[in-house]
Specification:
Number of domains: 1
Number of helices: 4
CATH superfamily: monomeric porin ompg
Largest sheet: 12 strands, antiparallel, barrel
Strand content: over 45%
Number of strands: 13
Radius of gyration: 18 Å
CATH class: Mainly Beta
Order of helices and strands: HEHEEEEHEEEEEEEHE
Structural class: mainly beta
Amino acid sequence: MTRHSFSARILFAAIALVALSSAPSYAQGEDDDAKLRPAEPDYAVVNLPTTLPLPVHGGNFRLTHRFGENLRNDGFGTQASNLWGIDEGATILFEYRFGIMKHVEAIANRTNFNKVIQLGTKVDVMHQDTSKLLGVSALFSVEGANNYQEDYKPALGATISRSFVDRAAVYAVPVWVHNSAAATGNTRDTFYMGIGGRIAFLPTAYIIAEVTPRLAGYAPGDAEYAFGVEKRIGGHVFSLVFANTFGTSYGQLATGGFPHSLYMGFNLARKFF
């Protein structure tokens, strides 16, 4: 059996397992997955996942760019002449997620950073409401470089959220990534704890920030961090962001950010439900 086939079977088995697992029951109207959650407008902070639910047969498309100008190394004149990185090319991600059943999402994305394809699932175990203080989602994925042909990295994690009066939300995202050092020819793992949040300074505008310190295992470079401003307009969410890495997948976040680096970019998301 090839590594490609083995990793695909792991992914499909995990999706089947979580899809067949019994999810908590909710009273009618108490857990409407399509309702507006002002403190949680998107499925990501910058790179870290949130607990925002996706309705059954609903979809969400996400496009990200990270431009190539290192804003910490180049002078203002160079940055301005390159339009703060827009002239330097971009690392781009396309992602689509689909609600395959109540509280279960299938997620696929591809980034041109090492041509990584990530396939995974998110299961909403619990949503914050009048009787529950936290939201909790389980995460599983397998990513592979060179268009899912090598350097497979299974990841298992969770997102734990807490919202405050529809104006702010904070997240803790523990993630374990197997084979995080695949690019070096070694088999090592990484465990990190992503911390992120957003706060509304206008009814539909937010400040967003996150950091992912590695707590155990393979941990090159600096911890990934990112921040920015975000605007929600109907089913669209646009974020102008700054990050110390081009990485967006769980495995790429495990390898951290580039020392003395900062890149401008954006996230654009559109809901379909």
